[in-house]
Amino acid sequence: MERFDRAYFDAPQDRRNTGSIKYGTPPAGAPEDVIPMWVADMDFPTPPAVAAALRRAGERTIFGYTAVDGSHWDTVASWYHRRMGWKTEPDWFSSVPSVLSGVSAAVRTFAAPGEGVVLCQPVYYPFARIISGCGRSLRVVPLRLEGTRYTFDYEAIEKELRRVDCKVFLLCNPHNPVARVWTAEELQRLGELCLKNHVVIVSDEIHADLILDRRRHVPMASVSPEIAQITVTAMAPTKTFNMAGIPAAHLIIPNADMRERVSATCWASGMAGWGVASMMAARAAYGESEPWLEGLLDYLRGSRDLLYEAFPAGSPIACLPVEGTYLAWLDCRGLGLTEEALHDLFLKKAGVWLDDGDMFGKGGQGFMRLNFACQRDTLTEAVRRIKTAAGMN
Ligand SMILES: Cc1ncc(COP(=O)(O)O)c(C=O)c1O
Q1: Is 45 exposed, middle or buried (0-12, 13-18, 19+ CB in 10 A)?
Q2: Ligand 1 centroid to residue 52 C-alpha, Å
Q3: In angstroms, what is the span from residue 77 Cα to ligand 1's centroid?
Q4: Domains of the chain
Q5: pLDDT (tens digit per residue) in 165-193
Q6: Which of 241, 256, 262, 341 has the highest CB neighbour number within 10 Å of its CB?
Q7: Does residue 1 register a pLDDT over 80?
C-alpha cells in the first residue's frame, strides 16, 4: 500500500501547460520564475483512489445522465459523523456542480432582489460578487482583529440582522482567508442571533476537512437542532482531496421546506447535478482516501510551522495563526507600505504570486494571502525570497 508520508508530498510535480489557472499567466511585472501561491488548489497529486475512479469512469463507452444513489450519501454522511460528530440524513443532501453555485442558489432563494445579505470581511472575495451580482444588498460587517486572533463583532452583526429586509447571513466556516476554525461557542452565539432575527444561515464549509489544530471542525448546522432548521450548508470533497476541476459539491439542508425552495431555484437556473465521473470520484474520495488526508494534514502542519518560524508575531511580516485551511494570512502592516507597493514587493521583487489582502474586502489592506499547499522545497524558496525582498534576513 502506498504511504502518504513526507516523501510522497515532497515529490516535485510539474503543473505547467496542464490548463491549471494557478500556473497560468501571472500579473504584469512578474519575473519568469515566479512561484504561484495564490488560488486555493494544491500542488499535490489527487489521492490515487480518486485518480483510479476517474480512469474507471473513462473506460466506459456510454456517458449518459447519472443519478446519485442513496448509498453515496450514506458514505458522505458516515464521513461527517466519524470526523465531525455530525449526524445527517441522506435526504438532506443534494448534488450541485460547485460550492459557489450552491451558495448562489441559496442566497437567491432566501433573499429577494434588494434584500440584505450579511458578510464578515475580509472574506473569500467571490461572495461579495455573488451577492451584488445577483442584485441583493451586500451588508458588510468587518471581523474584529484582537491581537493576532479574529473574532466576530456580534453587536455590529446584530445591528444588521435586525434590519427588516435582512434575510441571509453568509458564513465562511472555516474562514478563508483568516484561517479561523470557528468554535462551537462562537457559532452558537452567531446562530442564536440569526434565529432571533429570522435570518437564514448559508454556511460555506468547503475547508471543513482541513483542520490543522488538533480539534474537530464544528458544522454550523450541528450546533443545535433549531439552528440546523435555518441553515444551508455547502460542502465538497474538492478542496480536501485536490480535485477542484471535478464538479462534485453538495448542499445539506435539514429543513424540508427550505430544501424544496432551494431545489426550485436550482431548477429555475437550469443548474445540473453531477456526471458519472463526479460521482465515482467523490465516492473514492470520501470512501477510500482518508489515509491520504491524514498524511496531507501532517504535511501541512509542518509547512505551517515553517511559516510561523519564518514570520513570527511582531515581525514586519507576521503569519497569523492558521487553525485551518492551507492559506496563511500574512500581516504585512509592519512594512508600512501602500497596497501597490506591497503587491510589487511580493510579485516583482520577491517573485512570489500571492493574493493581495485588499481583494478580500474591508480589513484586508496590509495583508497578503499565501497558499502553502506546495512542496516543502518550494515553500522554503518562497520564504527565502520574501524575507530577502523585505530585508528580514
Ligand atoms: C470559501 C470558499 N468557498 C468556495 C470556494 C470555491 O468552491 P467551488 O469551486 O466549489 O465553487 C473556495 C475556493 O477557494 C473557497 O475558498
Answers
A1: middle
A2: 24
A3: 21
A4: 6-47+290-389 (3.90.1150.10), 61-288 (3.40.640.10)
A5: 999 999 999 999 999 999 999 999 999 99
A6: 241
A7: no
